[in-house]
Amino acid sequence: MSDAQRIANLDAWLETMRGPDGYGGPVVHWWQHCLSYTGAGLDWRYEGIISGYLALWRRTGQAVWLEKARRAGDDLLRGQLPSGNYRHSNFEQNPYSGGTPHEAAADLGLLRLAGALREASQGDWEAYERAAEANLRCYAIERLWDDEAGAFRDSPDVPSLVPNKACTLAEALFAWAELRGADEPIERYALPTLHAVVSLQVQDAGRLAGAIPQNTLRGTVVEAYFPYYIARCIPALLRAHQLTGEARWLDAATAAGEFILRHIEDDALPQVLYPRGMNRYPQWRAALGDILRALELLQPYGLTAHIDGLAATLRGACLPSGGVATARGFAAQISQHRDPAAQPDFRDPLPAAGWVDKAFAWLAGLVPGGQPLPPPQTAEVLLDCTAAGRPARWRETAQEMTLTAGGRTLYHWRKGEPWARVVAPEVMAR
Predict the structure, then answer these.
(1) Across the 430 residues of the chain, what is the mean pLDDT of every consecutive 10-residue run?
(2) Among 204, 225, 336, 422, whose Cα sits 20 to 30 Å from the Cα of 269?
(3) Structural domain tally of the chain?
(4) What's the domain range around 332?
């Protein structure tokens, strides 16, 4: 299957995930799941969705893709609260608002859209910039900025720094500053935040060299190193280098990329590494789009990134529905012992908009230039799997997602509805 066909199928799948307020659906995650609430999530899914549609517009020249990017931006405008926050912006913790890095990622999508519309001489671009600015000023700067630490907190009430989230926020500040021709967001907030992030990077030689820890809490470093989240730091570090010409930002980004490359195993990456040991599972599939993008950004600077295996893994995760499987190995999350011959846990093939968008954004940049996409070719997904260790069956159509076991419905979501109709206790307990 060509990448153009994959993207056509992905676009068709995204259409099935839209409800009245935007892109919805269940979420599975390393931390926890959001299976009951299935309404629009105005979270980081909008970064990839908007970026993907903008890439398609630029690659094909077709106005329909710019209009779909605008429609996604309009979801965020309608869902913005007087506080500057977005409704339902917490991804796996939806339907709460104030999610990090989710609101900053949504801002980044809005700012990219505003830039594209300005490029196309469409005068309403400022509405999208103003929405992002309101969130950055009223929430990020007013509530998350820690003047003493010189960086953004993860929580207004707790001294904390989560590097990947702070880097997404810095990336949004760079985009905002570029649109407005202003230096303050960069000098006052973005660069000091990135300095705090780089100060945490592992400098010692060894297996963790170049790694960036997941977070600090009240000044204590939490020594957990997630390759995926480290990849999310790279674009902001590279942008800092491009804007300042300072080598330290490029050195930090390169070291982070080298750390990721060292830990590719069987065309996948472990979930998290510790000073002693690691958790391999679950291994992300759709989210590899962000990792591939980060590694590709480093290639012009001399990093030799052998990413064909990771790219093949992502492409191989594309489902007949047009979605992309979330992971491999959810059943081994506790034991960390995976039987390759066993049926997958139902969470593995479940496609979530907030993971699929990462594959969508990466693949969209690969479609042939100047050519329209082929018609979508999608079909029902019907897979044998497990749920709570029991044999089960996962089914997805354009209208619904269903999990059954032993003649009983464990999960049922009718697409477009804000809440799943059936969520069995044993599914929620996973």
Answers:
(1) 97 98 97 96 98 98 97 98 98 96 98 96 94 98 96 94 98 97 95 98 95 94 97 98 98 98 96 96 98 97 90 98 98 91 95 98 96 97 95 98 96 98 83
(2) 204
(3) 1
(4) 3-428
| Domain harbouring 55, CATH code | 1.50.10.10
Give the bridge partners for 396, in sequence order: 381, 401
Helices (H), 263-352: 288-298, 308-316
Residue 427 CA, chain-centre distance (Å), reads: 24
**Alpha-carbon gap, residue 397 to 382, rounded angstroms:** 9
* Cis bond before residue 282 (omega within 30° of 0): yes
**Residues forming a β-bridge with 381:** 396
- CB–CB of 351/324 below 8 Å? yes
Alpha helix segments (H runs only) across 336-394? 353-364
The helix (run of H) or strand (run of E) holding residue 423 is strand 422-423
- What token pair was written down for 149? 């630490």
Single-letter code of the amino acid located at 181: G
CB contact at 8 A, 312 and 13: no
Alpha-carbon distance of 1 to 362, in angstroms, equals 16
What is the rounded distance in angstroms from the CA atom of residue 69 to the CA atom of residue 324? 20
The whole model's pTM is what? 0.97
Q: What are phi and psi of 327, to 5 degrees?
A: -160, 180
CA separation for the pair 232, 27 (Å, rounded) = 19
- Residue 75 in tokens: 């979801």
Per-residue DSSP letters for 385-419?
Answer: EEETTEEEEEEE-SSEEEEEETTEEEEEEETT-SB
Whether residue 101 is preceded by a cis peptide bond, meaning omega within 30 degrees of 0, is: yes
- Per-residue tokens: 278: 């690691």
- Are the C-beta atoms of 381 and 321 separated by less than 8 Å? yes
**Token duo for residue 63:** 């106005």
DSSP for 96-113? -S--TTHHHHHHHHHHHH
Compute the distance between CA of residue 129 and CA of residue 165 in angstroms, rounded to an integer.
Answer: 20
CB 29 within 8 A of CB 91: yes
Q: State both tokens at 296.
A: 């590709």
